[in-house]
Amino acid sequence: MKSMLRTSALAFLGLCSGVYGPNLSGQTTDKSLDTRAIQVLDGMAERIGQMESCRFVVNIATDSMHFEYGPVRYFNRCEVGYSGSERFFVRSSGHNGLHGIWYNGLDMAYYDFEKKLYGLFDAPEGSSLQAIDAVHERYGVDFPAADFFFPTFTDDLIEHHDRIDYLGIETFGTRRCHHIVARSPKRNIQIWIEEDGMMLPYKMVIFDWNPDQKRSYSAEFEQWEVNPKIPDAFFDFPAPAEARPLKIVAKKSRS
Questions:
Q1: pLDDT for 12-42, tens place per residue?
Q2: Fewest Cβ atoms closer than 10 Å to its Cβ: which of 19, 26, 222, 223?
Q3: In Å, what is the CA distance from 128 to each residue of 53, 105, 142, 146, 157?
Q4: Topology annotation, domain 30-241
């Protein structure tokens, strides 16, 4: 979780903006950590880690500064599915069009439904999280809600925030959610986790107040399906006959 919100270097692809977190180690001792908040976060991570498969929808809103208009809000709706530790898909629709990513444990493919362009990422064979980690680092692509699936989620949150507090129960219609806030000098992250036995994430809001990067981000989850049967073939990408190949170039490394 080097950054809880990153800007995609492949913005032209129109992929979902999303939180993302690679494995990090090392913590400072100057922390204010609410025990109840940590227990809830660990409980959520444990439930997610026990899933054999899942599907959900995440609705994302991102506020970015436009040089001419000032703050502008953009929306994306992402359908996400995971199966086992080696397969996932993402289908994104919103202001950048309709796009998809498939990973079957061997290949990761991207497809622009409107422009009929497809390409393959240079991703390692293995687990979904390893592939997400590698593609994010190499290409700058963000994957919606990926943070929540990393087993180091709580540790990463602690690593990059000075304090984490439990703010009590908030009600959204019939949903009762634990409200948790994590704060650092440049960022405020709020997470709402459902109070029921599944303890699934319901909403997250991020406020960046870095002078060089002021923006806000929100994600709201719906239509969770836990342990659905998803055929393996669903994660393969057969390129349509009319599709044209697209060369996906890695982002430039910073010196």
A1: 344 444 444 333 333 445 789 999 999 999 9
A2: 26
A3: 12, 7, 14, 10, 21
A4: outer membrane lipoprotein receptor (LolB), chain A (2.50.20)
